[in-house]
Amino acid sequence: MLAAAISSHRRRWTRASGIGFGAAAEGWAGPGAEAWWGYKKDDEGVWHLGGKAGVSPILGGSRGFEVTVDPDKVSESVGDAADAVGDAAGAVGDGIGSLKNTVTDWF
After folding, report:
1. Quick one: CA torsion of 18, 21, 26, 32, rounded to 10 degrees?
2. Where on the tree of life does the source sit, at the highest rank (predicted)?
3. CA 77 to CA 20: how far, in whole Å?
4. Are 12 and 60 members of one domain?
5. Statement: residue 99 has pLDDT above 60
6. CA separation for the pair 12, 10 (Å, rounded)
C-alpha cells in the first residue's frame, strides 16, 4: 500500500483436510493503492494462491482472497479416507461371513 495513514483489517478463513479458503477486507484512511496476484510456496510447504486490490484517494480500502493447499495434510486426509473405506468393506465382509455361518448352521 502506498502511504496509507490508517488501516483496519478483517479476515475470514475456512480450512478442511489441508485446503483453506480465505477472504480479507481492509479500510484505509489516507491516499494509497495496492494490487497483488499470484502464487507462492511458504517455508512449511503450503501453497498459497490469491490476490488483493485496493485504492484510496482519501478514504477507501481493499479486498482480497486466498486459497491454500497443504499437500501433507491433503495426502493424510486421503489416506484416512482410504483406511475408513477399507475398514467399512472389512466390516461388511465380516457381516456377510457371519450371516453365511448362521444360515448354514440352520441346516
Report:
1. 90
2. Bacteria
3. 14
4. yes
5. no
6. 7
